[in-house]
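hey team, just a heads up i'm posting the complex here instead of the shared drive bc the drive is being weird again. everything in one block, sequence lines first with there labels, then the predicted structure for the whole assembly after. its two chains so it's a bit long, scroll down
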Amino acid sequence: MLGILVKKQLAEIFRNYLYDPKRNKARSLSSKIMMFVLFAFLMIVVIGGMFFSMALGMQVMIRLDYGWFYFIVMGFAALFLGVFGSVFSTYSTLYLAKDNDLLLSMPIPIQDLIASRLISVYLMGLMYSGIVCIPALIVYFLITPFTFLRILGGLVWMFVVSVLAFVLSCLLGYVVAQVSTRLKRKNIVTVIISVIFLAIYYVFYARAMDMMNILVKNVALYGQSIKDASYLIYLFGKMPEGFLGSMIGYLAVSLLLVYAIWHILSHSFLKIATMTKTTTKTNKNKTTFHQHSLFKALLLKEFGRFTSSANYMLNCGLNIFVMPIAGIALIIKSQEVMNVVKALSQNVEGGLVVMICAGICLLASMNDMAAPATSLEGKNIWIVQSLPIEASLLVKAKACMQYILTALPVCFLSLCVIFAFRLSLLSSLVVLIFPQLYCLFTALFAAWIGMMRANLQWTNELYPIKQSLSVTICLFGGWAVSALIGFFYIYVGHYLGMGVYLLLMAIILLVLSYVIVHYIDHHASERFMNMH
Amino acid sequence: MLQIKHLTKTYGNKIAVKDLSLHIKPGEIYGFIGHNGAGKTTTLRSVVGIQQFDQGEILIAGKNNQEDPLACKKVIAYIPDNPDLYEFMTGYKYLNFVADIYGVDSILRQENIQKYGDLFEITQDLGQPISTYSHGMKQKLAIIAAWMHNPQLIIMDEPFVGLDPKASHLLKGMMREVCEKNGAIFFSTHVLEVAEKLCDKIAIIKNGELIKQGTMEEVKGDESLEDVFLELEEE
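-- predicted structure starts here --
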């Protein structure tokens, strides 16, 4: 029984490698092999390679006889990756699994069910922490000779890290599940938390090399501090160096923690698995029955759809948050950025303005919520088809949503740029207006391509949001157009001067926008009628 | 109210509906019965204007639904066989969205929501997201949305599926009320007892072709509708 359940858990985790949700059927053998090769490449070569480089960067510690400190740093990195790599799957597989009701209604011993879920959580943690631990051990043994105790210590260390990752993942997963069932605006909170994590990740990533260098240079000082302050952490690092006492101690603690998790879950699993979710209830108030215009009703519907899904917001609207952050960062770092941009442009003020416009457009291109909007109608398409709605108005509402959600942060970013670079009045006007025209064009284009390439036959909303051709075209096409605006100026446009060049670009954008609107006005009804 | 003239629809080589003609007058409840895959849903979707057809003409209140689809949609309401509603909206938001589309003023929409919400005992759930609704609750919400703008013609595909007995009874009363106000109902069903008791006229479709239509007496005579239907199916 346990074997069957573990197999089911693993099949669920690797579902996308075995099953093609786009075509709603199992992948062919060659496709499966390719998916697993790609996965192995990503995990071993890309991520594993990154941590191998990190380990190589810190090999000095081993040579200076601070191998234990090296293992503390690598161990904590492994722990971090193990926990955050598995915490969300813990949340969904252990606590809020969709098949809890089904499996609980079957004659399956509850212990087998818990064990199967825990094993899959542990394996996920082991996989992620292993990506750090294995390169760390390889680099260590490249420098230090093999002994039985060191090999044993390395294996125990890796096991202890994976168990600690497992325990923390279970605890954090429990917190995430509790918060998720009680939170009202969980989509918005998910987006905000994701943005904070991304920001922390990028700050950490940007400063990782500096931090590593400081650590290596001051290894003796920091090492002694850790040894004095926390002997337990010191013992953690001593494990792979073959110190038997720490191995036994940590092994015992790990087994005790596993037992504790098992004991707690055995007593609380049923309660957790069957807890009811809190839902947002809107009470009737004065505004509940307000009448809106047709267009506003459609626009509100689009905003409602956008804010209902964290996936939608994160994948198609992340730059709503990023652009204001970029604007503030620009004010802080204006001098450094200005030097780079000056070096890139030949005509200083004009070149700077064009580069700024191209840069803002590039960031604005990453918002493409109108592109999957038609596909996201999905099985609800009958509603807009059967109601007396001009299809063109519906497409324009989708474009309008994107325009509003992009134009406002773009406006803020433009103001930050104007302030940071102390631009002249004319340049300021250009920096304010040109990106707005670009936003208008991209919003219309995204809504149009979304309508042209609509695919209503999806089983998971992630497919229209992340993998549809319309989204790909909008994202990469937007980047390409933004880059071309800058490159054309450098190679050709500067002969015309900034004003004429950007005016010409603005006219092109307006003409293209008009062509799209014209097409939507005349062909949207027919397109929508044929969508099934 | 509704005239279907020589409707033909094919899917590739398969004929879904063949030369179907019907005339539904104001004040009539018109039942549409047939086996699974007979062409009922295709016909209903063609009438509503959410499906293109190959030949024929459909007139709603005298207007061609292909030439003037918006004018036709303004006077009709449609309830599909599976009420897939916007799950990201609450019941209130969905009803208000539909009311906005039909331009129903605040007072009338409030009255209708209150009236039908209370009738179907769903008022206290209207503030909840539709994603939390059961099939029956979604069906009730779809019915309230359909009645929101006092339509002249209501098209329903299997409207009684998922409804509890009380809600089914209420719906039958509401259908009769629409007809008393000179409106019309065109609906498909597999529940022959309901059709027999409720419908003024009935049409039986088999393999895309209309095999019998008329008043209940004309179609079934002294037999039960079930017997007539089964006999016709076996022919």
